[in-house]
Amino acid sequence: TRRSIIARFKAAERWGIFSEQGTPIEEISVWDRVTVIDVSHPKLENQIRALIVGILAKKILQARMFTSRSDETGHAGEGSRIPVTWLMIDEAHLLIPRRGLTAASKPLIEFAKLGRKPGCALVLATQRPAATDDDILSQIDILIGHSLGLEDNIAALLKRVPAKLPGQMAASDFIRAIPSGFGLLADQKTQQRTMLVQVRPRLTHHSGKEAMPAKQVIPPKPP
Fold this sequence. Notes:
Helix content is 35%, strand content 11%. By secondary structure, it is an alpha+beta fold. Helix 3 runs parallel beside helix 5 (105-114). The N and C termini lie far apart (66 Å).
């Protein structure tokens, strides 16, 4: 048993993500600052990426719960204090898959379910909503859908729309025809409508496409 544990620790040492002097959460969550943590390095396996994200989500939630409690009671106490924090995750289906668990599954679900009161917001981006955990999708307040082509992903989107969706917009062909720069926006607070919105042109290059569109694109009309 000892040899097995030592071997696991030695393997984790080679990951290059742990340190005796780790980065304090107060240096990651800072007022009026965006902190980008890139876990896409090819040396990191999916489970290690999930472990990093899971630890961050847990630390942020704990720190915000302590900060919120301290503000309410007026007692500082001992613990990390951080501002209201938005955690934004790309390729969410890899970290919180619908089937199976990762090291990020439980921390992110708890973040989504418990984080609203202490001031933790979660933003997930995924190209495969059908492959993303149902528990976390059930917590959606605002949904923006675009660039979906596969029927199962469109069905997963429609299943989780937190507002009324006109029949014309619920057609798969309509959703597939939404051009780049447009998307469906649904908000749980209004619940009475889903809108087709246009997002400002991106200012950076992405996937080899031009930064600014060459001409204005007209969205499709509902049939």
